[in-house]
């Protein structure tokens, strides 16, 4: 499991003073980027050298409790499945021991033309540790 820390800023909140729902998607996107980077996968190089990118294909989200300004949050990312062209992740946002948000995310590997592509072997090895 990968952990990513972030703080809630005023710009993340809505009129009610709680984190605006769409910002949780930004939080988990940042965490996914850092997870991939921590495994040694250079997404810019994959795009430039292999002509492939990862894109969100499907996402389910559950908003369980609100976060507010100045909260220190931790995003957990766990890969649950990898296939030829797809990666499934479980992501959650925590404030201490309190679970605030959960998401199931399916990523697909695409060519720059938007067609499905196999995940390159080197990237697969880095993601799976094999």
UniProtKB/TrEMBL annotation:
<comment type="similarity">
    <text>Belongs to the 4-hydroxybenzoyl-CoA thioesterase family.</text>
</comment>
<dbReference type="InterPro" id="IPR014166">
    <property type="entry name" value="Tol-Pal_acyl-CoA_thioesterase"/>
</dbReference>
<protein>
    <submittedName>
        <fullName>Tol-pal system-associated acyl-CoA thioesterase</fullName>
    </submittedName>
</protein>
<dbReference type="Pfam" id="PF03061">
    <property type="entry name" value="4HBT"/>
</dbReference>
<feature type="domain" description="Thioesterase">
    <location>
        <begin position="17"/>
        <end position="98"/>
    </location>
</feature>
<dbReference type="InterPro" id="IPR029069">
    <property type="entry name" value="HotDog_dom_sf"/>
</dbReference>
<keyword id="KW-0378">Hydrolase</keyword>
<dbReference type="GO" id="GO:0047617">
    <property type="term" value="F:fatty acyl-CoA hydrolase activity"/>
</dbReference>
<dbReference type="InterPro" id="IPR006683">
    <property type="entry name" value="Thioestr_dom"/>
</dbReference>
<dbReference type="InterPro" id="IPR050563">
    <property type="entry name" value="4-hydroxybenzoyl-CoA_TE"/>
</dbReference>
<dbReference type="InterPro" id="IPR006684">
    <property type="entry name" value="YbgC/YbaW"/>
</dbReference>
